[in-house]
Design brief:
Distance between the termini: 124 Å
Radius of gyration: 47 Å
Number of helices: 11
Oligomer: single chain
Order of helices and strands: HHHEEEEEEEHHHHEHHHH
Helix content: 55-70%
Shape: rod-shaped
Largest sheet: 3 strands, antiparallel
Length: about 325
């Protein structure tokens, strides 16, 4: 028998956490830490250091007959490798590198490969200039009509001037996040609950204008602010639901009363039309009876007063009398003959 081995799924460590499950603030911090590590070394500089070191070793082996030259070649290769390790830098297409010389800003570098003078120059930051998204939450903020709400929003922003974002503010990510949260609370306090629910786009434009005015001096532009959700307490939701139901019932009763009033007015108008026209009234009554009894097998009970008013009794009597006279004449003719 051949044993069958079923591969098991790789278990994640208890402390491991996927990037998609991390809070947005922690993801940004992780990206910033990765950028800070790439400021010091990268794959290109490491490869250049290895090649320079190997070249120095190869020269030392070739010059082994001359010990002093061999040592100098090996030492020179090592120094060149260290220089290239810290001199060659690389910035991605969406990044700009802030270069400082003895602590003073000298310019932006990148994207792509660029070189600095080690010890003299340093790359302080790698600024991501793509559109970024920041989650903003205002919990238990009071509206203008004193209703506690929880509002979730998304801020889309971009660093358009890498120099200002580093020189004008210490931590531009925290500055944008906290400014957006403060502006959101201020906007909530200036609007009523109904306005926040029905006019989210207007509120987003107002927040975008406030944040853009504040962040422009930092070299940051806020493109838009979108309100994702407005949460209210469950008790208030129930009260609003009951209020909406009561409003619907009130409108239904108003519509029903209006219909009854219009019907009564039409009946009054019809009565005025039939008051001096008895023939028209009789014709209308007969038409109603005809509509009621035209179905096969139907039976209609009509009050005697209605029959007398329409003259249906006399009409029926004349019809019956005519039928009886015709029958008598038809029956006597054979006797005479």
């Amino acid at each position: 028998m051949v044993p069958i081995v079923i591969p098991q799924k790789k278990r994640e460590k208890p402390g491991a956490e996927r990037e998609s499950d991390m809070p947005q603030h922690r993801r940004e911090r992780g990206r910033e830490a990765d950028a800070q590590l790439r400021r010091h070394a990268n794959g290109v500089s490491l490869a250049a250091m290895i090649l320079a070191t190997l070249l120095g070793v190869a020269l030392a082996v070739a010059l082994r007959s001359r010990p002093a030259a061999a040592v100098a070649a090996a030492f020179g290769g090592s120094l060149l490798g260290l220089y290239l390790l810290f001199a060659i830098k690389i910035a991605r297409q969406w990044e700009r590198a802030i270069v400082l010389r003895f602590g003073k800003f000298v310019g932006l570098r990148g994207p792509g490969l660029f070189a600095i003078v080690p010890v003299v120059d340093t790359v302080s930051h790698l600024i991501d200039q793509r559109v970024r998204v920041t989650d903003v939450t205002a919990e238990s903020a009071l509206t203008r009509d004193t209703v506690p709400v929880n509002v979730d929003a998304i801020v889309f922003w971009t660093v358009w001037d890498a120099e200002k974002s580093v020189l004008e503010v210490a931590d531009y990510f925290d500055a944008v996040s906290l400014s957006a949260q403060t502006a959101l609370r201020e906007a909530i306090g200036r609007h009523q609950l109904a306005e926040m629910i029905t006019e989210r786009e207007k509120l987003g434009h107002e927040l975008q204008a406030i944040l853009d005015e504040k962040t422009n001096p930092w070299g940051i532009t806020v493109h838009s602010v979108e309100i994702r959700d407005v949460k209210i307490p469950p008790e208030l939701e129930d009260a609003m639901s009951r209020q909406a139901q009561a409003e619907r019932e009130r409108q239904a009763r108003i519509i029903l009363g209006t219909a009854e009033t219009e019907i009564a007015a039409r009946f009054v108008t019809a009565g005025e039309e039939y008051r001096d026209r008895p023939v028209a009234l009789h014709l209308r009554a007969m038409n109603m009876l005809y509509e009621a009894i035209k179905e096969k097998g139907s039976m209609v009970i009509v009050p005697s007063s209605a029959v007398e008013t329409m003259g249906l009794g006399g009409l029926s009597g004349l019809t019956a009398l005519g039928k009886s006279d015709g029958g008598a004449e038809g029956g006597g003719s054979p006797a005479q003959s």
